[in-house]
Amino acid sequence: MANQKILAKKQEVIDEIKDNVNNNATFVLFDYRGLTDAEIKELRRALRDAGAAYKVYKNTLMARAFKDLDIDVTSALEGPSAFAYSTDQIAPIKVLSDFAKDHEALTLKIGYVDGEIADEAKLAEYAKIPSREGLLTMLAGGMIGLVRDLSICLNLYSEQKEKEEN
Fold it and tell me: CATH homologous superfamily of domain 4-129?
């Protein structure tokens, strides 16, 4: 029979995984085999800069946590898996995808974005979405265009009214 202290530690890890899933918008499981220590530090730094983090858990403990949460990612829990998570829906996906382009050893397995499971193809689509700042810049540019067009129209209208009065 397993020691109660060991079981309690395992339950703490399972609860930690569940908290990370519940308190974040996105998580991604990826294979990190073949990365050097320096590359892993570089990846950790890039994730931290994007407001994300990652941790390596035992697959059996992740499977238990995901089963408790009714999330079916058991197909991705073969071989070593790292667990990246963030409150930003796209940040960890973009960082991991960009990192995987330069480091062939890193492969994305599966993701979970806003309550939906995302396979490798869906993760690739998400990686193409501009960052939050980029989207806000696009929105601001569009709004400035509308304001500019409105000001041109108002100016032309006022010039027309001036001509009619004279």
Answer: Ribosomal protein L10, N-terminal RNA-binding domain (3.30.70.1730)
Return the pLDDT at 69. Answer: 86
Domain ranges of the chain: 4-129, 130-166
Reported confidence tier of residue 117, pLDDT bands at 50, 70, 90: confident
- Convert the chain into a string of H (helix), E (strand) and C (coil): CCCHHHHHHHHHHHHHHHHHHHCCCEEEEEECCCCCHHHHHHHHHHHHHCCEEEEECCHHHHHHHHHHCCCCCHHHCCCCCEEEEECCCCHHHHHHHHHHHHCCCCEEEEEEECCEEECHHHHHHHHHCCCHHHHHHHHHHHHHHHHHHHHHHHHHHHHHHHHHHC
Would the pLDDT of 45 be above 90? yes
What is residue 41's predicted lDDT score, i.e. its pLDDT? Answer: 92
> Mean pLDDT over residues 101-127, rounded?
85
